[in-house]
Amino acid sequence: MRKADKNKDNMMTLKELKHFLRQINIEVDETYAKLLFTKCDTSNSGTLEGTEIKHFYDLLTHREEIDVIYEKHAVTGGQMSANDLLNFLLNEQREAATLEDAVRLIEKYELDDSAKHMNHMTKDGFLMYLQQEEGSIFNPAHKKVFQDMSQPLNHYFISSSHNTYLMEDQLKGPSSTEAYIK
């Protein structure tokens, strides 16, 4: 972010913010970015600083499906207890997990010490867990690459569905590699 702050004033204009997003490969619609920017500019200064930048990033990267999953499983006082997390691991992730595994994940990924002390996982801890390899649904047995991957990328056939690269409308909408990632 410091590189994106062109004039080094610790404040981000909309232009600087959009440049920063392109640098970290986040494609965002111009109108939507301006709407979020205005919403986060609580000081009405035309720039974002400190917590306003974090709030912008949080709104931009918010994933509602994670909220739904967390709320479904966090039945113990609005947080996931070790039993709630175990239920998630068994039923959603389909892992052969034990209560001890759930407690270990809480100890490893929970950021809030008071929640950790009660063997609970907050949404932030849950997000930390999901972003790690341990929380990936990818089967590690498929991790080993057995093909020759030493050639340039354009020498390989990449299997994807028709128009996967499109972000919006097929005829006039923008396209981006972000669509492949999603």
Return the average pLDDT rounded to an integer. 85
Strand order of the largest sheet: 1-2
Gap between N and C termini: 23 Å
Please identify which CATH superfamily of one domain we are dealing with.
EF-hand
Tell me what the CATH architecture of one domain is. Answer: Orthogonal Bundle
Q: Assess the beta-strand content as a share of residues.
A: under 5%
| Sheet of most strands | 2 strands, antiparallel
Helical residue percent band: 40-55%
Organism: Hucho hucho (huchen)
Subcellular location: Cytoplasm
Catalytic activity: a 1,2-diacyl-sn-glycero-3-phospho-(1D-myo-inositol-4,5-bisphosphate) + H2O = 1D-myo-inositol 1,4,5-trisphosphate + a 1,2-diacyl-sn-glycerol + H(+)
InterPro entries: EF-hand-dom_pair, EF_Hand_1_Ca_BS, EF_hand_dom, PI-PLC_fam, PLC-like_Pdiesterase_TIM-brl, PLC_EF-hand-like, PLipase_C_PInositol-sp_X_dom
What does this structure look like?
The protein is mostly helical. It is built from nine helices and two strands, in the order ααααβαααβαα. Among the domains are: 14-61, Orthogonal Bundle (Recoverin, domain 1), CATH 1.10.238; 64-134, EF-hand (Recoverin, domain 1). Strands 1-2 form a two-stranded antiparallel sheet. Helix 2 (30-40) crosses helix 3 (51-61). The longest helix is centred in the first third of the chain and has 11 residues, at 30-40.
